[in-house]
Amino acid sequence: MNSETPLPPAERLARIIDDVCKAAAARAPRGFLAIPVLLLLWARLKRMSLRITRLVARAATGTLRTTPRASPRQPLSRRPPANPPRRLPRRAGWLCQPVPAACAYASQLQHLLSEPDMLALLDTAPGIERLLRPFCRMLGVARPKLPPRPTAPRPTTPRPIAPRHPSNSSAEPPAPDIPRARPRPARAPPSLRHAARPPHPA
Questions:
Q1: CB-CB contact of 28 with 90 (8 Å)
Q2: Domain limits, the chain
Q3: In terms of pTM, does the model score above 0.85?
Q4: Cβ(138)–Cβ(101) below 8 Å
């Protein structure tokens, strides 16, 4: 009896995404899913699948950037755009109502996200978990529970240590030495000073 080799988790994930797109496309002509919603859903899922494939390839070659790159802040525009972009529904499991087959793919996705190989892939490439968040939301699938990633400790600057006095710390420090002025010699009274003068010669 020949047993089939299980596919890698990345390929199984790509198949689930592709099957969801096909199931949604089959329900749109019957009026269960609006054509604009189908086109937006198809574009989002295909773009997500392509980005996940690239992340998996970079993780396999060791060229994946683990730390996120800081993006410059863009100034906030007060005026709303003239043509706002279309958005998909944001409630959990919204795709399972117009596309009942999505419930089966949701069960497959939930099982895949609990396997050790898939969890190891998500830990190696954290960007895949971020890309899967909208997909998990539309199928009503709980996000995988990953262990917290270790953060680098912040550099700390040592605080200056105040000098301590050898005596009691509550005692006041000794006053600085101030040089004292020399006392002036005492002068004799005026009467004694005149008497001490020698007489003038005649």
A1: no
A2: 9-62+89-139
A3: no
A4: no
